[in-house]
Amino acid sequence: MEKNLRQASLCIHSGYEPKNGEPVELPIVQSTTFKYESSDEMAKLFDLERDGYFYTRLANPTNDAVACKIAALEGGIGAVLTSSGQAANFFAVFNICEAGGHIVASNEIYGGTYNLFGVTLKKLGIDCTFVSPDATEEEIGQAFRPNTKALFGETISNPGCKVLDIEKFARIAHSHGVPLVVDNTFATPINCRPFEWGCDIVTHSTTKYMDGHATQVGGCVVDSGNFDWMAHADKYPGLCTSDESYHGLTYAKDFGKKGYITKIVAQLMRDFGSTPAPQNSFLLNLGLETLAVRMERHCSNAQRVAEYLSADPRVAWVRYSGLPGDSSHALAIKYMPGGSCGVIAFGLKGSRETAIKFMDSLKMINIATHVADLRTCVLHPASHTHRQLSDEQLRAAGIAPEFIRLSVGLEDADDIIDDIKQALG
Ligand SMILES: *Cc1c(COP(=O)(O)O)cnc(C)c1O
Fold it and tell me: How far, in Å, CA of 314 to CA of 332, rounded?
């Protein structure tokens, strides 16, 4: 049934299909373990010879149903849920890259991912070279080394709101024999399906629009099944040679197209955990059921707010790809013709203090370290996430002192604009 359904219908019907007399809503299987009648039956599960559940750290019916829904939405062949977006990005890379390896990443990415790649992976012996996504293919190509294992970018960058040229990045990755990994958190598969543009692996912080109600922290890794690991067997020994910790099986051979995602479950979930609670996956699923409807409204509200801001003389600049003058506008029309997301970056004329005064004057809009939620919220990196930095250090990090990230929610657009209007004084 699922093959023919469109996105809004997949949001509701994929992943879990109740049989006769079963509950219509996805049941929460809040159980760590599963019982078997014979020792042999469970042994077959351990050998990955049979599908089934034995311990929730590795697999759980509620978690799997939600992972299947996200895989269907992205057009992937398999997915695994993680307990956070950070864990998803870590696993996506660590699954194919070990000590002595190297990755190339866009420098326009979420601060947590920047830190994970630039600082923490280094402690595991993995180097990262950051490149400007605006650089030419030749310039980005120069960052690659013989030990490079992946190229990474964000469909729409957090917080810079820059749209990634996915086809360009895919060309660069594939010409160097590595997969393109894209964090699709902000666009969501409703507005962009990176696999259709050559991306190989998609990650998500499901904490954001997919949940949409600020109820759970979670992540997801989705595999397109398109990257031919065996064609680059020397680069990916973890996938293409036998795993002694798993009875000598070879993921890319024994599981074919599903090798990458099977290895994440069998090896990384087994050894690192980071499994979401089934209760959280249930909450995530409730969010996913309305994702298509909500994204439409996030985008139309953000478009109106962005247009209002860009017409106000007190506003110095606005970054929203829906604005015709925006530097990402052409890429947004190509990759996300139905809309991008609800996040806008803008700056007020004045100083750090002008931004603080504006935020403190807001009445309905929340000040929150959150984004992509049904409640409109603002964050001022200079006063919050990056508050230890001077104005000069901030500019060096690519963040202006006046930079405000506005995540436009699902309230009436007129109320959002009224609140901004009164706070601008
Ligand atoms: C929030 C976010 C993350 C990290 O996700 P958590 O769920 O907070 O761990 C990663 N990537 C992007 C684009 C994000 O917005």
Answer: 26
